[in-house]
């Protein structure tokens, strides 16, 4: 991602929050056959030191990705949306795209059959616990174990991450408020989730760019990309 100091997200706890709330990730590997991408749910290991996630892939994705043989990139995408220049001052005509994004890097560890089944069990429980009548693999463990043989579990201990929190931090408080109001409304680009993230930024007192960041600013900071 483009290096823009104003938008850097360096707090591991905020990255963990992003993973918890947006568990559908893109897995990218550069293999001997070229670039491979897949999409799977993940669960954050809350008791681990650092950032660690567990997941699974369906066979034969473990071969396509050459899992365990090299570093993998996981892309986590939070709320995002188009920001119209119509919400800015009259002299500002360049739109942008606000977003929360994290790139996580690490070499996956392949899990044994028992740990993989435990991860699948926890994955189902993690998402089912909100349901009025949660489903569990315990209902028919024998059938669940048979299905689990078609998957390969993995653990990714994140060795480094590159994250961005691009939420109009470079705008004046008045413009910031207009953007939040528009996103929270019922217009064609409304996004209540994105508006809520912007309010989190203000509450965390990271709205105002530093003097150095203001010096580094150019029009491409607000390009729609």
From TrEMBL:
This is Negative transcriptional regulator, PaiB family. It comes from Salinibacterium xinjiangense. It comes from the Bacteria.
């Amino acid at each position: 991602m483009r290096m823009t100091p104003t938008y850097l997200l360096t707090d591991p706890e905020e990255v963990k929050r992003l993973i918890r709330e947006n568990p559908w990730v893109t897995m990218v590997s550069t293999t001997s056959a070229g670039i491979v991408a897949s999409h799977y749910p993940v669960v954050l290991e809350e008791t681990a030191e650092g950032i660690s996630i567990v997941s699974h892939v369906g066979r034969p994705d473990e071969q396509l990705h050459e899992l365990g043989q090299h570093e993998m990139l996981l892309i986590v995408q939070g709320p995002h949306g188009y920001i119209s220049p119509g919400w800015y001052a009259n002299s500002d005509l360049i739109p942008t795209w606000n977003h929360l994004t994290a790139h996580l890097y690490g070499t996956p560890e392949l899990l044994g059959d028992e740990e993989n089944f435990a991860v699948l069990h926890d994955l189902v429980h993690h998402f089912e616990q909100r349901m009025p009548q949660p489903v569990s693999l315990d209902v028919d463990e024998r059938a669940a174990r048979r299905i689990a043989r078609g998957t390969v579990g993995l653990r990714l201990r994140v060795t480094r991450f590159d994250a961005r929190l691009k939420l109009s931090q470079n705008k004046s408080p008045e413009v910031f408020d207009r953007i939040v109001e528009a996103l929270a409304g019922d217009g064609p680009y409304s996004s209540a989730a994105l508006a809520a993230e912007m309010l989190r930024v203000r509450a965390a007192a990271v709205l105002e760019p530093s003097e150095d960041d203001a010096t580094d600013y150019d029009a491409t900071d607000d390009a729609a990309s």
